[in-house]
Amino acid sequence: MRALAIAVALALAAGTAHAQLVDYDPNSDAWNGLSSFKALAGGMGKDVTTPSSVDWSELTADDILVIVYPLQAIDARRLEAFIQAGGNALIADDFGEARDALSRLGLIRSDRYVATRFYENKVFAPIATAKSSDHPIARDVGDVVTNHPASFSHVSGGTVVFAFDDGALVVAGERGTGRFVALADPSVLINRMQQQQFGGNVQLATNMLRWLDRDGRARRVVMLRGDVTMFGDPQPFIADPNGGSVARSIGEINQWLRGAKDWLLMPSGMQGLAAALATLLLVLAVAALPVRRGPKIDGAWLRFGRPVRRDEPHAVVAAAERAAERGPLTRARSAGPLLVLACVMRDQVQVMLAGTVGKTEPLYTMPESELVAQVATARGTEAGIALTRVYRRLRALPSRGQAAAPWSAGQLARRDFDALYRDVAELCRTLGQPLSEAVEA
Length: 441
Fold this sequence. Notes:
It is a single chain. This protein has 16 helices and 13 strands. The protein is α/β, with parallel strands linked by helices. A 9-stranded mixed beta sheet has the order 1-12-3-4-11-10-9-6-7. A two-stranded parallel ribbon has the order 2-13.
């Protein structure tokens, strides 16, 4: 650790530990190089490339994008689109130009943190511990030793895997079909911090690569550090570039929507859009309203006296008798009045049952089993059986008003009405009040 302290002191004397281009060199075996991390990825079967420029459109699901301490601002929209479409990326940055890209992913980077544990009590080497111990990235890691780190003071849409007492160090998240890991201290990956005494750091680097390679498909690690140019646009559907046309279309629509959300409407534009939407909703509402014609108004309500209700028992019976006298065709049309008469019988049974069990409208307020049990207890088993025979048919009848309405299409065949009448009469008899007396009452 003494060598680390000397190296850090020399770096501070030069200005900052991250201001030199020699820092994070993937091919360097120096203390601040990344050859150990490169060898680790190679040992996992990955081909590590370090291009000087990258075309977003050439990145596929076979790639893991690793961005270490960028000196050029990363296009936040393109990075999010890359991950959303199925790409996988590790962004390791403390004081570089990844701030906007991290913010787009829901992370606010800060140069402040609070820690109470330090490696060998060195204030520049705070220790982070697991906050989500069940996450795959935290498996078998233990402690993570850092070197002049930054932190994430705000995390939205991701999981804090490692953190100090205050401030996150490692955040893992998913967007669409892709994944990302954000590391607030790229020094964790340098050769000096990937040695045996920092076993937690080595395991962390291994776990991050494994988690980003969810299906074991990735064959290449594209490592970018420092001043690397990125151009072009990500593929709309990276997870399966050879997928069907439907998948491609969906990916292209998602990409268009992500780009569209970056546009801002002026007040006049928002007002015009609101007026267009309101007009569209009004047209749809008018089109959805049913076109109905009400009954013809004949002015009967102006006459003295109460008009006869079409659902009154004597009116229904009289209509049925007139239909019977006029022949078979008219009798067929009398199915509507028979439905009203059946509703009248149902209402009379409702009154009788209410008097028997002591509850209002028991046909609709009590379950069948409970009502039958109480009627059998009060009037005998025969009454319970009679109620069971008609319960469902009475429950299925509409209200008297609905049955008698001019627009009602409900009907009840004569045969069904006769059968219902016989069963209701039997029920009334078992309840101690014949149907004829109930109707007269």
